[in-house]
Amino acid sequence: MTELIEAGIVLLILLGSTALGLIVQSLLGERHRGRETTELVRLVSAMLVTFTALVLGLLLTTVKSSFDRIDSQLKVFSAQLIQLDQSLRQYGGETDGVRVQLRSYAAAAIASTWAEEPKPPGDYYPKVKPIGSSGFENPALGDMLAGVDRTIRELAPADLLHRRIAAECIRQLERLTQQHWRFIEDSGRPVPVRFTIVLVFWLGIVFASFGLSAPRNMLAYTTIALAAVSIASAIYLILDLATPYGGMIATSSQAMRDALAHLSE
Known about the structure:
Blueprint lengths: L1 H26 L7 H57 L4 H18 L25 H15 L6 H26 L7 H21 L4 H24 L12 H10 L2
Helix pairs in contact: 1-6, 1-7, 2-3, 2-5, 2-6, 2-7, 2-8, 3-4, 3-8, 4-5
């Protein structure tokens, strides 16, 4: 919803800039409407249009790459959860308690990260509230993972086979923990606010120049309005991709839910 509001604000700014340009056009004298002046305004507008097109393309590429990276990391993370659970099963019945902890962590991570989706059924996991743009940022999830680590390290293997399995569990959990913190590091806004403000400022100048040279008829007004809507929708797409766990375009939670189903067997 926040992304939609921000895109709406951008749309209002662009339409307002066009209206300002139309007002200024009606106040200009004949010497300001000459061919040379008009060509200069068009040249500056073309330069800004080129800049904004490059920046929009760069922003879209950046947020799409970030979105795809997080989506791929989630699949790897889910596979790591399953691998750790399989290793704990191989160890034996002594790890039933830590497997329950791991299952609770997975369910809590799903419920807090994809807050807009249905939560995993049952009351065996704590209801962790999301912090920031990712539920992984909540310290409670980090504490749960630390509890799993502590329980695994407290295992007392009786023979060489169990010592090897315990060592493998520790290595798998270390990789899992690293991935957990990587999610937190990647949860920051990839589109700097000041960068967005400068981009909208450029767009405002461009649309003001449209108003300066636009003929006063409904077709011209409609064309400019459609252009403003198109730019605002592009801004919305960029902002929505920048929040990969929510919004209209979000990373899928299916891989994590599949992992939870495996952990529940």
